[in-house]
Write a structure and sequence with these properties.
With 219 residues, the chain is an alpha+beta fold. Helices cover 27% and strands 33% of the residues.
Length: 219
């Protein structure tokens, strides 16, 4: 009888551990990987797209997060179930008049003893790609990827989007959906719209004026 109870207890404990592991993995996997931009170097979190004013040489900071659930064991290895960020590969795309001038990866991204540096392809231009790994001891805090230099004159159609993949604690790839991270400054877009409307009004008045003059002139 005692043996049966012991076996039953062991089975329950095993099932409980398995369920807890499954729930932890599900929680980690359900976290939405994100990449976003900030104007300053402070970690202010993902507040949505930032508004970029006119001008060249605007410096932005890129960040990434895979979630906030820490692993209970080794990370960046098979079987880990947390949200540590073990690597990143992303693509930035500029539209309208925005130009991606340069990206400088954060040298502290890789926490290993022989730190890897970001590999960057495509700048300057409309598309930029970068990637790096952190197989040291990454945490679940928001990770600073580096600085991005953006130039160009705002238009209402100007955008900068990001997409890619994050390498999770289990070395799984977590897709980052296409996300708009930079928009034109609202005042700039509004001024452009008002200016275009003003030009249309002036052109319309000139047409009307010319028509009136021709009508009133003698045959």
């Amino acid at each position: 009888m005692a043996t049966k109870r012991a076996r039953s207890s062991a089975i329950r404990q095993a099932l409980g551990s398995t369920l807890a592991l499954a729930l932890a993995f599900a929680g980690a996997a359900s976290a939405q990987p994100r990449i976003w931009a900030t104007v300053g170097p402070e970690d202010t979190g993902d507040a949505g797209p930032i508004a970029l004013p006119d001008g060249s040489g605007q410096i932005l900071h890129l960040w990434a997060s895979a979630g906030s659930t820490p692993s209970s064991g080794p990370v960046c290895a098979a079987g880990a179930v947390g949200d540590e960020l073990c690597g990143v590969a992303f693509e930035l795309a500029a539209s309208g008049n925005f130009v991606l001038q340069d990206f400088v990866g954060d040298p502290a991204f890789d926490s290993g003893p022989s730190a890897l540096t970001f590999r960057v392809h495509g700048a300057p231009g409309a598309v930029l790609r970068a990637n790096n790994l952190d197989l040291g001891v990454p945490g679940v805090a928001n990770r600073h990827l580096g600085t991005l230099v953006v130039g160009g004159v705002d238009t209402a159609a100007s955008r900068i989007t990001v997409s890619g993949r994050l390498v999770g604690a289990n070395l799984e790839l977590r897709p980052v959906p296409v996300t708009t991270i930079v928009l034109p400054e609202p005042g700039t877009a509004a001024a452009l719209a008002i200016g275009a409307l003003g030009l249309l009004v002036i052109a319309s008045r000139r047409v009307c004026s010319n028509g009136s003059t021709r009508t009133s002139s003698p045959a």
